[in-house]
Design brief:
single chain, alpha+beta, nine-stranded antiparallel beta sheet, six-stranded antiparallel beta sheet, about 30% strand, binds zinc ion
Length: about 1050
Amino acid sequence: MEVYSVPGMSRPRFAVASKEKYRPVAKGESFGPSWTTHWFKIEIKVPDSWLKVEPVVFNWNCGNEGLIFSEEGKVIQGLSGEERREWILPASWNDGQWHTFYIETSCNGMFGNADPNDNIQPPYDDRFFKLESADLAWINPEARALRLDFTVISECAKEMPPNSWQKHRALEVANAIIDSFDESDVTSIARCRDIAAQFIGTKANSPEVFKPDQEALIMGVGHCHIDTAWLWPYAETRRKIGRSWSTQLDLIERYPEYNFVCSQAVQYQWLKEDYPDLFERLKVQIKAGRFIPTGGSWVESDTNLPSGESIARQFIYGQRFFEANFGIRCKTFWLPDTFGYSAQIPQLCRGAGMERFVTQKLSWNNINNFPNTTFNWVALDGSQVMCHMPPGDTYLSSCTVEDIYRSLNNHKNSGIDQTSLLLFGYGDGGGGANSDMLERMRRARGVADTVGEIPRVEMEGNVEKYFDRVEKRTDSGSKLVSWTGELYFEYHRGTYTTQGFVKKANRESEALLHDVELLATIASLTVPGFKYPKQQIDEVWKLVLLNQFHDVLPGSCIEMVYDDVKEIVKVVRGKLESLLTSCYNSLGLSGGGELVAVNTLPWARSEVLKFESISATTSTLSQDTKDGKYVLLESSGSSLVGVGVAAGLPLVTATAEEITPGVFQLSNGQLKVIVEGGWITSMVDITNGGREIIAKGREGNQHVLYDDQPLNWQGWDTEVYSLNKKKIVPPGEVSILENGPLRAALLVKQRISEKSWMESTISLDMHNTNSAFSSYLEFNSEIEWHESCKFLKVEFPVNVHCDYATYETMYGAVRRPTHYNTFWDVAKFEVCTHKYTDFSDFTYGVTVLNDSKYGFAVHGNTMRLSLLRSPKAPDAHADMGRHSIRYAVYGHAGPINADVVKCAFNFNHPLKAISGGIAGSIEQPFYFEGPQNVVISVIKRADDDEDVSTDELPTKKGKSIILRLYDSLGGHSYGYIVSKFPIKAAYRTNLLEDDGEEIKPISRAEGTYALPISLRAFEIGTFRLRIK
Ligand SMILES: [Zn+2]
């Protein structure tokens, strides 16, 4: 046995590592430190005296994860320390000859490198792993079989109902086995197995036990949840996939009844890149229906924080991968471990061809017990999917008798249908099933068919077959109960806020991807020679989708992961900037001398933008500032380009003044704001009857430091009791920073604690009376943050009374209570929001806009935006350091309206300044004519266009544009998509761009084309417009 210890932290593949210089090594040596890689080269010869013995196994335990390779570099199977330490040697090796193989070990456990007794603490850097065993052994299969017989029978004695005769019989049989067993007489094993057969039957040692195919209540589903990054980095996940899936392929080959279900297209992509031979073996078993891809998404993403379009792309990139590589599309959305599920998920997954959904995470709720296990889950628009939450309450079952009983007894809808899925196999860190689990399932089935009582299990592992049967038994689900709206997870509420930088990068990338796709689409149809950069756009999307994994975006990974994420974010930013520049150049927007602004939203708007230098002769309205000039730019809804507003127009300017010592006033004719020490003591909406926005006697923009000590899971959790213990950040020093005419701003300096401080600007821009939008008061804070278990939030007690508030969610909005009437209301003391949160009564409303935050609460009349957390596990340095945070307060007449939604889009897609620009005459190519609650969210080229397609799926002739629209506020809407491009043909499609109903465009006199469409309340509609 020899070893090659790879220097540093690199992870060379077999082809490289096998050629390195190896040194002799012996058992007892230790390997490390954490995260290093060590390759072992092992030569073995089965002793002559064993040559008739079969099977011979190689027993390996180095305490860490390993992967066996053949001498030629073919992947054989994974090893994982204690849980999996045996490799059954090929029978051909019982030939008295020497044979060579390799083991690649990585110095981490299944759950990374933290203290095994508290593995969500930050990992140790210096963990070493001792090589305990590297032995040849021959095993007695009958002895092992007896151990499993006995285990299952003794579990039956414990778990069967007290009043059942089978329970007493199990105890009797177990005792008889013990009494007959003689450790000095190997023949006693056979006698004991005969006794066991009285309880488990005679076929429980073979796949025959599952025949004849009798109806079973529980379907076993082999699974292996591999977190795409969590307590280990992405690079280690790539190897976990090789280890776990090779092991599962081995089991599939050895156990004919065993099928394995596996999600996340990115992991298949990585396998294809890193282990091509394994990928080919996988394809064979996928074709045979034994290795079953599921979930239809790129990663098992978070579903609270990503935008609706991100989730659509998770499905599009996932389903296209499965279709292009395996010729299949998944029918079930599979998300066992994600921290809550947005109300629009049923609609989105149906749009991607999945009408079924499996999760179980809600069983972790820490306040209310979720009442259903098999039910219809209904989206905001009324569309629904059939949902099953395996009542075993785990996706990591070890197939114990207890798990089997739980699958029956915890089924909350068993009055309608008693069947359930049992998800088994090691997971989170990968692994999957082992042979013990499969043997247990055989025996459990044997018990059910021999003595009964225990529910019968089957091993199809075929989730589709399971749902087919439920559909049949429930009249296509019509007998099942329904749950409408979000599946709020009453746990892990800190994940809306932890690791602020990854959330900010996510929002920013989502916005820029929208802009790039729009501009590139226009360029690809109007600029000769411009090729739609699909390849680059795909690359960026896939990186953004990767970082939406359900531990990465929520902030629950170790520091090492976030080091990688920071690098990915840099790459994404770089690629998006260069794509934008290339679009500007191609569209002729740059290379001139004008001040222009690109408006990527299809409505009129104006904004104050800063330019570093402008020519002195410019006639546009401007304001000097310390490092440049502010200019007001205006874009009409029909033009893509905004230009400077000429000086001399009757606009109301913004002013800042100190009205009495320490009391400052910002005003712009529409809003009059009083600021004291950084707190807003009054904010009057002059144009709306002088309505005071701030609650009487209270202060807005008050920062509060809450004590944030959850019971466990620091990075994940914040608890309701944290709201009781708080300190208000004291007021600070205020000075005037800008004094109009375009922007009035105050600078506020505050100390948060001895270690942390905050410098904020509170600004008000001039009120453009030509604009459809009211003004908002904007806050930009630079925060230096060095706290421990503190939660910083900013609060606005407002002069509004209503029992619900409206939070933006993916492709829609949800109302949540502002009171704690019931435990279900209390549980939502911290919820997820997107770009806006609106709190309105009948006559007036206040909206808090943000560009990167997700945690929010409205309780009583206080609106509370969550800013920063400071958990110390699993990342000891999470969120420490500098943050730039931007939010705004926007008042409006009446309840929430379409301007609120648009204003939130404006805030997240600011006009893009080009100082050496050319105004040109590029038109917005599309807009929606009809109710203003309908938003065009995406304009992109069709994935299957022959000049665009990047994968092996069939292409379509011509050039097409995909438009996605949604109703943002909940109203059935009729109207027209108006196109400046001639439309040759148009179809309504699903998210996967499959053509549905054809729509006839109407040619209009002014040269535009109108497409009549309708959307249900909160419906997401996708349309393919063929242009050329
Ligand atoms: Zn997970």
